[in-house]
Design goal:
By secondary structure, this protein is mainly alpha-helical. It has one domain. It has 17 helices and two strands.
């Protein structure tokens, strides 16, 4: 009897003295999310105050929207940053993109590894190595663009800075507008091709890139993320090529040029909204639906873009399909998925749908726009994609604030939920799966 009481007392004291894994994860998630929002607020104040970041004073709501967009690697802005931001201000934007894009995902992956989540197939990778690797990719792309644009000629510093701006936006899947568009009759095919490849690499995620590098350059096992990414780009490209109105806007282009532009549009709308300036609401309903699905699904886990991630969406669909058939066993790629993993996927997708619908309703009431336009804007904000259905400069301050909140939710809200859900142990009878969320 005394031995039993001793064990009970020891268990109670142990629980009081040592926080559970889930409590630690909740604390870390709260700390990270709070720091993220505080940094956004600090950057907004810096843009609002006369500190030399802008050429003219701007409203606080515009500064808040710009800072949120940069930290979430969205690329939306209610002001013309090329006109109203000084070189120092654009440098701060690049810094925020790195902190909220590469830096944030590096921190997330490091936290998951600390708590025993197997992120990489080969081994554990430190956060500093991930950060340095991402910066090396950006510098390499900058080098290619700078040489292509003649950095060895006149104004070499300006060429290098422009190249680094484009490389940062491309890899981080940020969509800050610039002078480079694929719709211009004299667009630079080589530069756009390099940036498109950079966007694709950034959307695949750091875990996929690390696995490709650490497996002696052998092709890594085909993953759900890669399959869904390629499938969405190919299907959306086909939908654009079959759209008569889209062909009217590119009547002077050859078949090869149309195919190239369609692929760039399909990739850009899904990841960042970068490069393209096609009027998305002028497309057919089917094409817009595909683009909405691509944005909501988003990029791979550990990537720079937003969305619920392909793996989460595939697990969600598989779970719903099995449930409708009365079978609660979900199997993907030869492995059985634990019920708790399916529940996580359902929670993430369900909350994402609720956020998009509520924010769409808010935009519809505030701006008086059509329901389809409101859904497009809300989904783009949730996916941290820069799609300007209505010029952001014309939006009501409440609408800008609402979109900022949705951006933050798409970037750190999902992360907080996922990190909390990972605190619950997976049953030992279930094999380890490389299924990631957030």
């Amino acid at each position: 009897m005394s031995r039993t009481l001793t064990r009970i007392a020891h268990g109670i004291l142990t629980r009081l003295a040592i926080p559970t894994l889930q409590h630690l994860l909740v604390q870390r998630a709260t700390l990270v999310c709070g720091s993220f929002v505080l940094l956004v607020l600090s950057a907004a104040v810096a843009f609002w105050l006369p500190l030399g970041l802008t050429t003219v004073p701007i409203r606080f709501v515009d500064a808040w929207f710009l800072a949120t967009s940069a930290m979430t690697a969205t690329g939306s802005s209610s002001i013309d940053i090329m006109r109203y931001c000084t070189p120092l201000g654009r440098g701060v934007i690049v810094l925020l993109i790195h902190i909220g894009g590469v830096g944030f995902m590096t921190l997330v992956l490091s936290l998951l590894q600390q708590f025993g989540v197997r992120v990489f197939r080969a081994r554990r990778v430190s956060g500093w190595r991930l950060l340095v690797g991402a910066l090396c990719i950006e510098l390499w792309v900058s080098l290619l663009l700078a040489i292509h644009w003649g950095a060895l000629g006149s104004d070499p510093l300006g060429r290098w800075l422009d190249a680094f701006w484009y490389a940062t936006n491309g890899f981080a899947n940020a969509g800050f507008r610039s002078t480079l568009t694929v719709q211009n009759a004299s667009y630079d095919v080589a530069a756009v091709a390099v940036l498109s490849l950079t966007m694709l690499i950034g959307s695949l995620g750091l875990p996929v890139l690390v696995d490709l590098v650490t497996r002696n350059r052998r092709m890594a096992q085909t993953s759900i993320n890669t399959i869904v990414t390629i499938a969405l780009v190919v299907v959306t490209t086909g939908a654009l090529l079959l759209n008569p109105l889209w062909h009217v806007n590119h009547a002077t282009a050859s078949t090869a040029q149309k195919t190239f532009v369609a692929m760039v549009d399909a990739l850009s709308w899904r990841t960042s909204g970068y490069i393209t300036d096609q009027d998305i609401m002028a497309l057919s309903v089917v094409t817009r639906t595909l683009i909405l699905m691509g944005m909501f699904i988003g990029c791979a886990p550990g990537a720079m873009g937003g969305g619920v991630t392909p793996t989460t969406f595939v697990v969600f669909l598989s779970g719903v399909y099995r449930a409708l058939r009365g079978d609660h066993t979900v199997t993907l790629m030869g492995q059985r998925i634990a019920p708790m993993v399916v529940h996580r996927a359902v929670s993430i997708v369900g909350l994402g749908i609720v956020v998009v619908l509520l924010s769409s309703g808010g935009l519809w009431l505030l701006e008086g726009i059509s329901g389809s336009a409101a859904v497009m804007m809300a989904t783009a904000a949730f996916a941290t994609t820069n799609i300007e259905v209505v010029p952001f400069a014309q939006l009501h301050p409440a609408s800008l604030t609402l979109l900022s909140i949705v951006m933050l939710w798409g970037r750190v809200g999902v992360f907080a939920i996922v990190l909390t859900l990972y605190g619950r142990a997976t049953p030992k009878t279930v094999k380890a799966q490389s299924v990631w969320f957030g």
